[in-house]
Amino acid sequence: MREDKDAADQLIIEMVEAERYEEALGFDHSASRREKTAAFIRLSARHSGQDRVLIALNKARNALLSETEEDKELRLSVLSQLDRVIRQEVDLAEYEHALTEDPKDSSLWHSKGLTLYELGRFQEALEAFDGALVIDPDNSAIWLRRGLVLDGLGRHEDEIAAYNQALAIDPQSRFAWLNKAITLRQLGRYAEAVDAFDRALTIDPMNSGAWFQKGLSLEKLGWHKEELAAYDHALAIDPKDSNVWYFKAVTLSRLGLHEEALHAYDRVIAINGGYENAWYNKARTLSQLGRHEEALEAFNRAIAIDPHNSVQWFQKGQALENMGNRDAALEAYDRALAIDPSLVLAANAREALSERIVSVKSTRPISQARSKLAWWSKWFFRTKK
């Protein structure tokens, strides 16, 4: 009995050391502050006189009551990942034991491969999938998973060959078409990627991600009309996808359709006000339209998100210079160069602006003297008459 109690006490201490505070105190993650305090009081009374346990309980209570929601979310996420890895290791041991008894069971090889893939042990996963395919070579799902593992190993040509095997068995496998298309795009084989996306979309036309990725491939081919149509398909399915709106805006801007681009950038910002590139490119578009005050405001919003972006400080300087605010422009160029002294554009812009300021100041006294001389000459000749 005493040994069981000692083991329970040690478990509490170990759970606290592992930052499993809720488990140590015996309540749910969603418990209120009052419930946490009540659990602490209850356990403290139960373990009165047991200094090591009380110290652990105090540590758990203080950590729970002081951590922010963000800290709690991160801690629980880490613990969840750790638990998942532990379960996967247990599953893996069970599969290996089962395979010693029945090495001809392809489903066991398949399951072992999936677990190894989730653990990031890609070479071992590949060997497990190959073991499954020796037994069941016409299983398209295993060929598909083999392709995913080869992607993890960076063997992309072999990956595409695996997807082709899956598709030879099951031509309607949208996942095989989609993964093949994504890999082809990554390899720069954009025309082939578009064809594969089309096949995937024929099977699953409501996949907004596939429409988006097709649009990105079309952009690389310079087929902008078709690219914009692909983005519109994606947005018809998911109108709140800020990334699709952003890339649509970029393409519209490149085509000189600046007003339409501004509308698209505004949609991005309405969905995600912290989308830095949207603010920056909106500012650039406004500058191209000569709307420098609005551009300045947008540059300021981009800089507020990332104050260490030297290019954005340089572009802010350009906007200020276009507005005639030379001193503020110089300050912006200085900020850009303080962040990145090698930014040639900012250095050249600052030098040119400084020279213009010096030139204006040096000619101003002469101009003033000429004006005064002209006035005296005019007065003199008038009095002579």
Report on this structure:
The protein is mainly α. The protein has a domain at 307-313 and 327-385. Helix content is 82%, strand content 0%. The protein is built from 20 helices and no strands. Helix 13 (224-237) runs antiparallel to helix 14 (242-254), helix 15 runs antiparallel to helix 16 (276-288) and helix 18 (310-322) runs parallel beside helix 20 (344-384). It starts with a helix and ends with a helix. The mean pLDDT is 86.
Give the number of helices: 20
The residue ranges in which pLDDT falls below 50 over 5 or more consecutive positions are none
Q: What is the general shape?
A: flat
In percent, how much strand structure appears in the residues? under 5%
- Average pLDDT number: 86
Sheet with most strands:
none
Radius of gyration: 33 Å
Q: Percent helix among the residues? A: over 70%
The chain-level structural class is mainly alpha
Number of strands: 0
SSE string, helices as H and strands as E: HHHHHHHHHHHHHHHHHHHH
Distance between the termini: 129 Å
